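Example S7 (structure tokens).
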């Protein structure tokens, strides 16, 4: 499901007009990740192959809300933090946050947000899954998106 076009704000500029570009850019900038270094750094994080991700999604294609990072050597990679540690399905809070971060449009920016230190959360969001209330992770992502 795609988002509706944003409503015009006072002054004629659509609210969130730069959101698709800036949410990921802000996450990357906050992480100190440059365009040339992002893929290598983010691809080093533990990840599942496309086949492994499909298996975790009951044999169906992984939902578009999951971060999918194309690796030129290994094919599509799905960062492991997105899935329950016991071999289970994707975390619902990850799907919710990834929708906010537009992971289907900017997977590198979404991955940078999850895998980089976040001063508001006092840690790396991926490492805080299950340790913080889910609502805190959603609020932190929403604050980034709304701050654009």
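Recovered sequence:
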């Amino acid at each position: 499901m795609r988002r509706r076009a944003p409503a015009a704000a006072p002054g004629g500029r659509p609210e969130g007009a730069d959101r698709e570009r800036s949410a990921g850019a802000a996450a990357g900038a906050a992480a100190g990740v440059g365009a040339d270094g992002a893929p290598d750094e983010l691809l080093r994080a533990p990840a599942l192959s496309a086949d492994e991700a499909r298996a975790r999604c009951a044999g169906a294609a992984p939902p578009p809300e999951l971060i999918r990072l194309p690796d030129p050597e290994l094919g599509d990679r799905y960062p492991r933090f997105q899935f329950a540690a016991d071999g289970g399905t994707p975390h619902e809070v990850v799907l919710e946050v990834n929708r906010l971060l537009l992971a289907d449009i900017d997977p590198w920016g979404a991955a940078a947000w999850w895998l980089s230190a976040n001063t508001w959360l006092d840690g790396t969001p991926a490492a805080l899954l299950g340790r913080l209330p889910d609502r805190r992770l959603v609020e932190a992502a929403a604050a980034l998106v709304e701050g654009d």
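Notes on this example. Confidence is low (pLDDT under 50) at residues 1-37.
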